[in-house]
Automatic annotation (TrEMBL):
Organism domain of life: Eukaryota
Alphabetized Pfam families for the sequence: Iml2-TPR_39 (PF10300), TPR_6 (PF13174)
Name of the protein in question: Uncharacterized protein
Cited InterPro entries: IML2/TPR_39, TPR-like_helical_dom_sf, TPR_rpt
Source organism of the structure: Medioppia subpectinata
Signal peptide stretch: none
Amino acid sequence: SHANKVRKMRTHWESEASKQQYEAAVRLANGFMNLTISNIPPKILQVINFIGISGSESIGWYNIDTAAYKLPGMFSELARLVRVFYWSYIEPHLCLGPLNVDHCQKLLDIQLEKYPKNLMLNIYNTKLLQLNGRIGPAIDAYQNLLTDQHLTPKRVMYFELMWCYALVGDIDRAIEYAELFRTGSMYSPAMATFIEAVFRYVKIVPTVRIRHVGKTITPEKLAVVRSEKYLKCNHMLILPDVEVLYELNLLRFIRGDKLLLSKFMDRINKELTKYKSDLTGSDYLDNYLMAKYLEGVVSKLLFDYTKAKQCMDVVIANDGRIGREFSLPAQAALEMGLIEYEMKNHEKAIELLNKCINEYTGYLNENYVHLRAFAALRELGVGVEKHSEDDNKLEEYKNQWLNGMNIKKKTYDQLMETEEKEIIVNN
């Protein structure tokens, strides 16, 4: 970027402190951009690469860590918060789950020693209780934060409390906070309404969708499609709350908790019994396969990998009898790959994760599946190859553009270098 080249080439600064603070700001921005782009699903990544933007996870973390631990000033503090934010929200919900909670807690404890009353730090600290499966203490902590008269982000508390109560099976309180979260929601009103609509407001969801940059964001699209499906299927969805908890990776937070997970399994077993007759009496098995899939998900969380794989095999084997739940086969392939990943069968995991990416397309949950599949591949050391391919594609696109404009690459690079020098002189 221009700012990064200015940092490298500028020779005159007001002081060493101003130089270091500028460097911290540039590294934070560069690191955050690289980290964000490296986590984008490949379908969207191709478009971003085409317009000349690429990102590397390793470069992103290097720059963020340099800003956080080797440079002074406000941007250094912000870089540490980026670390905490990624470990407490991005990684748990969009990747493989809370893999770095212990590291996050250590970093947060250091910050809380300096700023014990900082609201944002205390929100993060409460989030870590949730990530560790301590749902009861997390509820108490969120409720305590809500008593603060000066609390601004109350909607964040409502959102988290809604899920906490859903995880412990207190549906009435989950509805209460879902309604509080939905009221006045501006960013994702369809998703906010759908969460509450799972219980009582489904019919109005399609009328409140909004678009960002001309596109419906994935949570909005999921909410609208699911509510329309509800209306077309005799006002019936199969365990929609469990499905949403799975998609947001919230069930992962109570992994190994037999008491809480058994409540979900009891409900799943009732649905399996209800729709088992479809195996012989219907051409379509959507209801049965959805329940079977969720049985596999919960079995994996209980570390019963044999049963989990059996459930996913049933889903994949019957993909030809699916009439509307077209995401299930890809999600089942993803879960099979994640099971092998957890069992340390890395070669098999890579094979299955690539299968769910390459062999399935055009289904509703494609972005979610790809996010988690690539997160697992990065953990297995495959992500570096992806970035290398992106860099090669980016260079190819740039050369194609230069050829179309009848500009030689050498001339273009010289022009950019001259422009950078002029910027530095003018500053």
